[in-house]
UniProtKB/TrEMBL annotation:
The keyword Transferase applies. Keywords: Pyridoxal phosphate, Transferase. This is Pyridoxal phosphate-dependent transferase. InterPro entries: Aminotransferase_I/II_large, Ethylene_sulfur-biosynth, PyrdxlP-dep_Trfase, PyrdxlP-dep_Trfase_major, PyrdxlP-dep_Trfase_small.
Length: 472
C-alpha cells in the first residue's frame, strides 16, 4: 500500500521545450565529420586494429620537428593572459602574417592589421565571412569537384547554398573554365537564385593543382562583371612539392595580383582565407584568417569576432615560428621534401597496381580512379543500378578492412573516384596501403615483416604525442 502511494507520487515529466527552427534543421543535418571515423582514427595510435583514415587531409609528416620546436620555443606574454592586444588577432600575429604574406605570398601590397580578421580555424572564418556576404537562400559558385567542407561552412548556420559548377575534366585550371561559370550564373538568375560570391580553392582541393595567373585574373574579371565577391581559399599555399605533373604551375596567390591594373577589379570584393592547419600540420591549433581590403567586410566581421577569438597559446605558437627567420625556411624546406617523398610513395603504389590517378603538385592527397572496382552487386546479390550505391558498397568494404578514403560523391565529383591522403606518418600510411590492397583483392607489395613493424609502431603511444599535449 505504502509502496503504491510512493510510486504514484512521482511526478510525470512534461514535454521539453521545442528547439528553434534553426535547431530543428540542425537535427536532420549530418555532423561536420562522422564521429565514428574520428574515434577510430585517433584510437589507431593506441590500437592498430582500429580504422586508419586515408581520407582526411592532415599533415603528420613534420610533427617531430614541430613538437620539438614548439616545446623549446613556447612562451606567453602578459597580454596573452588577458583579452589580448586586438579583437581580431594580436599585434604579434599581425606582424607575423605581414612577414608571411610579403615573403611567401608575394603580396603586391602590404597586409596590414586593418586587413586581417583571425578566428578559430578556416571553417570558422569562412562561416563568419559568408554571414556578412550572403543571406539565407542565396548562393556561392564553386567549381566541381570541390572541398565538401564549403557546403558546411556556407550552410550550417547561414543557410547559404553551395552552387556547384560542372567544369570539363582536365580544364579546371584554364581561363576558359569561366565559360561554365557564366552559364551557371545565368541559369541561377533565370531561377531567381541570387549569387553573391564565387569561391576559388588555390591550390585546389581535391585535385591538387595550382591555378595559373591568367585564370586567377579571369576569376577577378568574372567577379567584377557580375558585381559579386571573390573568396580565395589558399590553405595549401605552401604545400607545393616536386611531382610527376607535366609542366607544373607555380603557386600564385590572389594577394600577388594587382586587381585594378591587371583585371579592372575592385579590390574590396576580394577576400583571401588562410591558416596553418595544412601547411604547418596543426589542424588542432584552430587558427584561420581572412585578408580583406574592404572596410565594410572587416567591420561587419569584427562585430562577432569575439565569438571566434583564437587562443593566445595557439597565436603564440604559430606567430613564433612565422617570425623565426631561421626555423621558418628550414621547416618549409623540410615539409616540401617530405611531401615529395610521400607523394612518390603513394604514386608508386598506384602505378604498381595500375590504378589511374590525376598527377598532383600541391596539397595532401591524390585523386584516384577506382571505378573498375565498384561492385555490381551488394552482399545479398542484389544488382546495383545506381553508381552512388555501388560507391557506397565499396566504401563499406574499405571500412571493414580498417581503412577509409574520401569518396568522390562527398566532393560533388564523379562516383568511383576517391581522394587518397598520403601525408600520414609513414608507418600509418604503410598499414593503410596494405589494408587497401586487401580490400581491392591485390597481393600485398610489402613484406609481411615490414607491415608488421609498421603496425606495431601504429600501436605505440609515442613520446611525440605526449610532447604535443604539453605544448598545446
Amino acid at each position: 500500500m505504502s509502496s503504491t502511494k510512493h510510486a504514484s507520487a512521482i511526478p510525470q515529466l512534461s514535454s521539453p521545450p521545442t528547439l528553434s527552427a534553426r535547431g530543428q534543421r540542425a537535427l536532420i543535418r549530418p555532423p561536420l565529420l562522422r564521429c565514428s571515423l574520428f574515434e577510430c582514427q585517433y584510437n589507431a595510435c593506441c590500437n592498430h586494429a582500429g580504422l586508419l583514415n586515408l581520407g582526411v587531409a592532415e599533415n603528420s609528416l613534420c610533427l617531430d620537428f614541430l613538437a620539438d620546436y614548439f616545446k623549446k620555443n613556447f612562451s606567453l606574454e602578459y597580454s596573452d593572459f588577458t583579452y589580448g592586444t586586438a579583437l581580431t588577432g594580436s599585434l604579434r600575429l599581425f606582424a607575423a602574417l605581414r612577414n608571411l604574406f610579403d615573403v611567401h605570398f608575394n603580396a603586391s601590397q602590404p597586409v596590414l592589421p586593418e586587413h586581417i580578421v583571425a578566428g578559430t580555424g578556416c571553417s570558422s572564418v569562412i562561416d563568419s565571412l559568408v554571414s556578412v556576404l550572403a543571406d539565407a537562400g542565396e548562393g556561392i559558385l564553386v567549381a566541381k569537384p570541390h572541398y565538401n567542407g564549403f557546403v558546411t561552412s556556407f550552410r550550417c548556420r547561414n543557410e547559404v547554398l553551395t552552387i556547384g559548377v560542372d567544369v570539363p575534366a582536365g580544364k579546371e585550371a584554364l581561363p576558359e573554365s569561366l565559360d561554365a561559370f557564366e552559364r551557371k550564373i545565368e541559369e541561377c538568375k533565370s531561377m531567381g537564385l541570387n549569387i553573391r560570391a564565387v569561391m576559388l580553392c588555390n591550390p585546389h582541393n581535391p585535385l591538387g593543382f595550382c591555378y595559373p595567373r591568367e585564370t586567377l585574373l579571369a576569376y577577378l574579371r568574372f567577379a567584377e562583371r557580375h558585381n559579386i565577391h571573390l573568396i580565395s581559399d589558399e590553405i595549401y599555399a605552401l604545400s607545393v612539392y616536386d611531382s610527376d605533373l607535366p609542366s607544373p604551375v607555380p603557386f600564385t596567390s590572389v594577394l600577388a595580383l594587382d586587381p585594378i591594373a591587371e583585371a579592372g577589379c575592385n579590390p574590396e570584393r576580394i577576400h583571401v582565407v588562410y591558416g596553418p592547419s595544412k601547411d604547418f600540420g596543426v589542424n588542432g591549433l584552430r587558427l584561420g584568417v581572412v585578408v580583406t581590403r574592404s572596410n565594410a567586410v572587416h567591420t561587419a566581421m569584427e562585430s562577432s569576432a569575439l565569438l571566434m577569438k583564437i587562443s593566445s597559446a595557439s597565436d603564440a605558437l604559430w606567430s613564433g615560428l612565422l617570425l623565426d627567420s631561421t626555423a621558418l625556411p628550414h621547416y618549409l624546406s623540410l615539409n616540401r621534401s617530405r611531401l615529395t617523398s610521400a607523394y612518390t610513395r603513394a604514386t608508386s603504389f598506384l602505378k604498381t597496381h595500375q590504378i589511374s590517378y590525376r598527377p598532383a603538385q600541391a596539397g595532401h592527397f591524390v585523386w584516384i580512379d577506382l571505378s573498375r572496382f565498384l561492385p555490381k552487386h551488394d552482399e545479398e546479390g542484389k544488382v546495383l543500378e545506381d553508381v552512388v550505391e555501388r560507391e557506397e558498397v565499396l566504401v563499406q568494404r574499405f571500412l571493414r578492412h580498417g581503412v577509409n578514403l574520401g569518396r568522390a560523391s562527398a566532393y560533388s565529383g564523379q562516383p568511383g573516384y576517391f581522394r587518397l591522403t598520403f601525408t600520414l606518418r609513414p608507418d600509418y600510411f604503410e598499414v593503410g596501403l596494405a589494408r587497401l590492397e586487401d580490400a581491392l583483392g591485390h597481393e600485398r607489395t610489402q613484406p609481411v615483416t615490414v607491415i608488421k613493424d609498421a603496425a606495431e609502431k601504429v600501436g605505440q603511444v609515442v613520446d611525440m604525442v605526449g610532447c604535443l599535449a604539453v605544448c598545446a
